[in-house]
TrEMBL record:
The keyword Transmembrane helix applies. The chain crosses the membrane at residues 7-27, 73-92. It comes from Blastococcus aurantiacus. Pfam families: FxsA (PF04186). PANTHER family: UPF0716 PROTEIN FXSA. This is UPF0716 protein FxsA. InterPro entries: FxsA. One of its GO terms (cellular component) is membrane. It comes from the Bacteria. Keywords: Membrane, Transmembrane, Transmembrane helix. The keyword Translocase does not apply.
Length: 166
């Protein structure tokens, strides 16, 4: 896994250099450097605005204890990753960071990442996860006797490969 990440990072750095040279050949070296600086400043501004909004939504969902806080947490993570990508020099990273920072495209990135993660999960852990259980009756209480623990009987469902479906 670590080797794949290093290879991907190396290929991304190489692609960034190639795109930077191509843009410099197209509009000139000075304008390319100014454009790279401008996208970094834009990244700081967007990170400040969207980061504050994402953190306030996360704080509000934690305060009200409502379900669905995972989306706000995911948004805060995508805003942080997008901000880092925008601040670092490089045009490919700027485009990817912009997709993570803008609210309209952030849901698309979240959905794509969700599909990628689910596709990497073992078959038994992919949604929907099904759990069957049967509750048994609680044992009768005697005077001054502690209540017996609730026992839940069930069976482990196995997939076609013989592994538990969890």
């Amino acid at each position: 896994m670590g080797r794949r990440i290093r290879i991907a990072a190396g290929l991304l750095a190489l692609a960034e250099v190639v795109v930077f040279v191509l843009v410099a050949g197209w509009i000139g070296a000075g304008l390319t450097v100014l454009l790279a600086l401008a996208t970094s400043v834009l990244g700081w501004v967007l990170l400040a605005r969207q980061g504050t909004r994402a953190l306030s939504e996360l704080r509000e969902s934690a305060r009200t204890r409502r379900a669905g806080a995972g989306r706000e947490l995911g948004d805060a993570g995508l805003v942080a990753a997008g901000g880092v990508l925008m601040v670092l020099p490089g045009f490919i990273g700027d485009v990817l960071g912009l997709l993570c920072l803008l609210p309209g495209t952030r849901s698309l990135v979240r959905a794509a990442l969700g599909r990628l993660i689910v596709s990497r999960l073992p078959v038994g852990l992919r949604p929907p996860v099904r759990v069957d259980s049967v509750r048994t009756a609680e044992m009768p209480r005697r005077d001054h006797a502690p209540t017996a623990p609730l026992v839940i009987e069930g069976e482990v469902l196995r997939g076609p490969d013989g592994r538990p479906l969890v």
